[in-house]
Each structure stands twice: as C-alpha cells, then as structure tokens.
Amino acid sequence: MDHFQYRDGVLHAEAVPLPTIAAEIGTPFYCYATATMARHYEVLSGALDGSGAMICYAIKANSNQAVIRTMVEMGAGADVISGGELQRALAAGAPPGRIVFAGPGKTRDELVMALGVGIHQFNVESEPELRMLSQVAASLGKVAPVALRVNPDVDAGTHEKITTGRKQNKFGIPIERAAGIYALGGGLPGLEMLGIALHIGSQLTELQPFEEAFSRALDLIEELRAAGHEVRRFNLGGGLGIPYGAETPPPPADYARMVKRLTDNRRLDLILEPGRVLVGNAGILVARVIHEKHEGRRFIVIDAAMNDLLRPSLYDSWHDIVPVSQPAADAALSPADVVGPICESGDFLAKAREMPPLAPEDLIAVRSAGAYGAVMASTYNSRPLVPEVLVRGEDFAVVRPRQEIAELLGRDRLPPWLPPPATPRAVEG
Ligand code: LLP
Fold first, then answer.
1. What is the domain-level CATH number for residue 57?
2. 246, 332, 343, 414: which one is catalytic?
3. Is residue 74 part of a domain?
4. 115 alpha-carbon distance from chain centroid
5. pLDDT, tens digit, 9 for 90 and up, residues 5-24
C-alpha cells in the first residue's frame, strides 16, 4: 500500500491534501511520502534480518538529498554510479564505509575521489578498469576494496533498455572469464579482491531470473574458493520491480527469503542495491490540466511533460493517472492521450487511457513516480526543473524549490565575437 489515498474525496499525501501543496508552490511538482519509503525499507530489511545484509540504496532512483537522508536515517548505505552521486551521498550523510561504487565507466578522477573518501567497495566491471584502479590506488598508497561485477548471461525478462545481465549488454565481466580476472586482480598492487557483484536489470517481476543469476554467481564463488581465493562478499545488485499497473512483482519478503535460502551458511557478507522498490511507489507527480482538445481523439493537455517524467516516452511505461478530486463512482470514462506542452509527439504521459471528465485547472496525479522521475528530468524546451516536496504525516517541506527561468538562462554565456543584444529584456514574474 502507498500513502497517496483519497480522504473526503481529495487525494492526500499521508495527511496532507495535495491541493494545499499546489496552492503554495504551484504545479507541476513531485511529492514523496516518507511513510511509504519507511515501510518499504522496513519490509525489506526486516525480511533480511539475521542475514547481516547491507542495504545500499541505489541513489540513482531518486537522489534528492532529503530522500537519501531519509534512507540513511533508517540505516541504509548508498550505491553510487558517478562522482556526483558519491558527493550527493556524502552530503546527505551516508557513511563512506557503507557506500559502494558501481558503473561501467568510472573515470580516473572518480576513482581518486572514492579512494580518498575510503568507500566500502568498488564494483569493478572490466579488466581495464581493474588495472586502472590498481594503478591509481597503488600510486596513492591505498588499497581499493574490490568486488568483481560478473555478467551471468541471464535474461531478466524486463524492458530491453534496462536489462543488464545478458552477454550482449555492456555490463560486467562474462562469468566464464571471471575466475581468471579475479586471480589477476589478486596479483595486482593496490587491490584487495573481496567478492563478486552482479546486477541483471531493473523492474524485474519474477524471482526466477534472480535465482538463476545468484546461483551462477554462487557456483563461481565456490570455484574461486576451491582455487584458494578468499571471497567474503556477495553483492546482489538491485532490480526488484514494483506494481505500476497490472504487474505483480514478488513481494520483497519473498525475494529476501530466496536470498537467504541460497546464501545461508555460505560465509558471505551480502550487499543489496535496491532503488525502485524503496522509492518508486513513494512518489507522485502532480500536474494541472491546461485544457482538453477533442479532434476525433481526446487529448488532455497538462502542464507536466516528458522533460519532467521521461519514462512513458522512453520506455512506453505505464503510470496510473488519477484526478486529485475523486471522481464520482459512476463517472463516465473515455480514452484520452494525456500529453504535455512539448513540441514532439513523443511527449505523453499516457496513451488511450480511460480517464474521467476533467476541466481546465483540475489537478491530476501521476502515480509511481518516486523512482527515475525527478532524476531523469531535463530542461528541454526551457522548462525549469519542477520542485520536489517531502511529506511526513501532517508536515510537508519543499526539498528542492522550482528552478527559476533566470537561473536557467543565466547559465549561458555569449562568446566574445557576438555583440550583446542592444536591448536585453527580462520578463518579470
Ligand atoms: N545497481 C546497479 C548496478 C544498477 O545499475 C541499478 C539500476 C540498481 C542497482 C538499482 O536498480 P533498481 O533496484 O532501481 O531496479 N531509468 C530506468 C531504470 C534504470 C536502472 C538502472 N540501474 C527506469 O526508469 O525504469
């Protein structure tokens, strides 16, 4: 269950009516519910209880510092993918000893930064990266803690663009080459080879691909141990899906039970990198209807667009869309395209969606937008980034204010060969 429910006919975030927030900060805005994040974190960590697993929240899903901080306060570490994310995690108070650094293209500068901070682990994805890390660490007189990310060649059964564990994907070391590269790492200076990592994709709705991948990695771990290598850590990645519409992903407790069943008595320190499952259903995007257009087809034009929430345009993904004022139970539904003001046909949040009657100025909520929503937003069409609001009970706080147009424009510079415009104008407001 999430914490965006109708109360007296008005959609609330926990105990806060969404029109209250809209009146204060305007639309569109993202809104996150602390209670949902806490519940999802507790369900997962509770089910893993006794396994000693470290939950490193994948901050790429939602890297607002208020969200990271909420996770850190509950005990989470962080999974980061860039120097920027590393700095965000640290700024939000994630302890360096609970940060893992993943990703197929860490730069030398990023490695230096992470070594300087003393993070828990580097998930190394290739032989060249292993050599680069060795060289950087050795030159700094440091020892880098390493887990080798393997590619187990398992089809995660998810969207083409977010599957990562098949041979043809750019991620990880083919599992059949992993033993050799693990041994190679053991002989390089500046490295401590500690374990194996994997991540086979995102928004998985079945347990079976996870189980297949974990089993292959565990076989590898036993093979490495038999060859005399020490393998202490097993990083399981993220990827557990959430219900956006009709899908029925496995409950986190079932996932955790499977993990425990496979790893019990293996003498492994487990690391998980969940993102979406912790925050996806903890967020919505609230927008306002600008107008409707009926030209053989019903278009609901709203003030949010693909630049604010890219997932429908990029992955054809489904997000439930509901009016903030609860429609009558017998309201007539008719199919509509819910579209934004951007100048391309790919700009939609829903296609042929059964929607109740709506009027200009009505508020709507796009659900399940807490993960890969705000973080993937852009300023395309010179649309400023929208605010983010965090709710807790009856309280709400703007955790990122709306970007101002002046801020956006102020980032550009004219080159010296262009004369400045004779009459620069700024529009008030
Ligand atoms: N660990 C690694 C190494 C990852 O690459 C990812 C996600 C995660 C953990 C977290 O996965 P999660 O638990 O959130 O599934 N933008 C796409 C999703 C991209 C996921 C990228 N990697 C979307 O909107 O569906």
1. 3.20.20.10
2. 343
3. yes
4. 24
5. 999 999 999 999 999 999 99
